[in-house]
Structures are given as C-alpha cells and as structure tokens.
Write a structure and sequence with these properties.
single chain, 340 residues, Rossmann fold, Dihydrodipicolinate Reductase, domain 2, 2 domains, 6-stranded mixed β-sheet, 9 helices
C-alpha cells in the first residue's frame, strides 16, 4: 500500500487556508489525516471537511508529532516563529508567505516551471507571491522559444490578495457607498470600492512597493535568470477574487506570433484563449489554470509581445500551487527533512 501523509495547515481559518481545504478535497493527494492550526483566538473552531469535523488547534500548545507536510499561510511572522518546531518533528513546510522566499537555500517553486529546485530542499519550500506564480508558466514558455530580455508587468489585483478581512472591507465599503454613507477604512490605506489603489505593500527605498519588488526578485529566482530586466506596477482593484496582469515581453530573438501562441498553448498549466477572446476574473474563479489572451505583437519593439494573463489568486496563486508542490515532493520521494 502506498504511503499516506499527515497534513497540517497553519492559518486554517484565513482565505487561503479555507481554499487549501477546498483544493485538497478535489485533488488526489494521499492523505491519512488533516490537522488545522491557528492562534489561540481561533482555536476550537469546528471546520467540516470531507464529512469530518476538524477542530482548529492552538499552535502554541499543540503536539506536532507525526506531521509529514505542513502548509503555512498565517503570515510571515508566524512562519518564522513556528517553522523550527515543525522541522524538528520531521515535517516538510510549504510556506505561502514571503518569510523565506529569497533565502538562497530555500526553493521557490512553481512546479510546471522549476520542480527540479525541490531536490535540494532542507525542510522548507516557498510558495511564490500570487501574481508571480501566474506569470511563470507564460514567461517560461516564451523564454524557451526566444529568450527573455525584458519584462514589464502591470497587475490588477483583487481584494482577496490582502486576505479575508480585506474582502469583507470591500463588501462593506460598497454597501455603505451605495447608501451614501461613509465607508469603513481599516485594512486598505484608502477607499477601494469604486476606485483603484496603485500601491500594494510598503514603499521601498527604490521607489517600488514591496509587492513590486517581490515580483521582480522572485521572477528572477524561479526562472534562474538573475539579471533579467523586470519592471512592475501593482494595483489593487475593487474585485473579490482573481488577479489580472498586463504583460509586455521583449525577447532576445525574433519569434513569429504563431510560434509564441504555439509555445503558450503547449505550456503546462496555461489555457490559451482564442484570438478574439480574453479572460476576466469571472472566467478564472474556481479554475487552476493560468488563462492567457490578447496575445499580440508589440509594434514598438522588434521582438516584443503583449499578453493579458488572469488567474484565481486563491487557487493557482496560492492553494493549488502549494498542493502541486506537495504532489511533486511525493512524486520525487522528497517528503523528508535533510539538514546535512
């Protein structure tokens, strides 16, 4: 009988934690037992999964023995605080925060693109930023046919990228404004309902935001292109789920439009839309593919293309990619901590 694994989710009551349970229910990960963890404030909450009632455990007092794979989605501080305890009991961590992404010894993985990076893990694998994830398969496909020279991205990121409370704030703001009342402002720096916020994360010394720097640095690491020219502008938009990206790519060598389309159509995890179609957030919600449309030449460049890229940020941008990492670990017999 093939091995079955004990799975843990830290941050089980958040938006991504809930989506992890949904995706685990849909995919064929060989599971023996699922355990849910959160802060003391959420401990004791009952969650129904596969006709079972799972009680959320207090991470501070829980016995972690027996856990094989742990999904972290409770924020960078929690990841840094509790990673050591999970590794001590032999659990492999798949971390959905930014805590470890740029550490050299920690693989940053989109399985369709760089699953081989898992081979050298030492107990922690990082799940990339949601917007970075949905770029990787299209960029990798174009890199294979023409070599990436420069990438310019403009993101349109939904409220769920900032968590469940951000989605609730967008809902409440919308209701208040439709009633001609003052909208609540707790999560976002400015009103999001019926507006846009071209600032996600903190402003860094470079002038870019922390979200933009994540996209730049993570793209280079995943694609193994440390000197790739990347420019990013990240915008929060008043939608609930699904991120969209305007992507401009300059290649090293000339590629026909038909070649670019063929490469995208062959790329694992990419759904290429028909020439007269384009994806929206409504299309991608609940789907695990990265949808690509409006592929066309950039007429200002000799070797340039424009693309429109959309994905469900809670699924492929977070939960699904994390579970695909777990599937790849199992397939490669890497569910173990190697500290030597």
């Amino acid at each position: 009988m093939s091995k079955r694994y004990n799975i843990a989710i830290l941050g089980a009551t958040g938006a991504v934690g809930e989506e992890l349970l949904n995706v685990l229910d849909e995919r064929s990960l060989p599971i023996h037992k699922v355990r849910l963890f959160a802060s003391k404030r959420s401990a004791g909450i009952a969650v129904t999964w596969q006709k079972q009632t799972l009680k959320v455990e207090d991470i501070e007092t829980a016995d972690l023995q027996g856990i094989d794979i742990a999904f972290f989605t409770a924020g960078s501080q929690a990841s840094q605080t509790y990673a050591g305890r999970f590794i001590e009991v032999g659990a492999v961590i798949i971390d959905n925060t930014s805590a470890f992404r740029m550490q050299e010894a920690v693989p940053l993985v989109v399985p369709e693109v760089n699953a081989e990076a898992l081979d050298k893990h030492r107990g922690i694998i990082s799940n990339p930023n949601c917007s970075t994830i949905q770029l990787m398969a299209p960029l990798s496909a174009l890199h294979r046919v023409g070599g990436l020279k420069r990438v310019v991205v403009s993101t349109y990121q939904s409220s769920s990228g900032a968590g469940k409370r951000a989605m609730e704030e967008l809902r409440d703001q919308t209701i208040k404004l439709l009633r001609f009342e003052e909208p609540p402002l707790k999560i976002f720096s400015r009103r999001l309902a019926f507006d846009l916020i071209p600032e996600i994360g903190s402003i860094e010394p470079s002038g870019d935001t922390s979200e933009e720097e994540k996209m730049i640095n993570e793209s280079r690491k995943i694609l193994s292109l440390p000197h790739l020219k990347v420019s990013a502008t990240c915008v929060r938009v008043p939608t609930f789920i699904g991120h969209c990206i305007s992507l401009n790519v300059e290649l090293e060598s000339a590629v026909e439009l038909s070649e670019a389309n063929e490469a995208l159509e062959r790329a694992e995890g990419v759904l290429l839309c028909a020439a007269d179609e384009w994806p929206s957030t409504v299309d991608v919600v609940g789907d695990d593919d990265v949808w690509v449309g409006r592929v066309r030449r950039d007429r200002s460049l000799d070797c340039g293309f424009n693309l429109w890229v959309a994905a469900d940020n809670l699924r492929k941008g977070a939960a699904t990619n994390a579970i695909q990492i777990a599937e790849a670990l199992i397939a490669r017999d890497l569910v173990r901590v190697n500290l030597t």
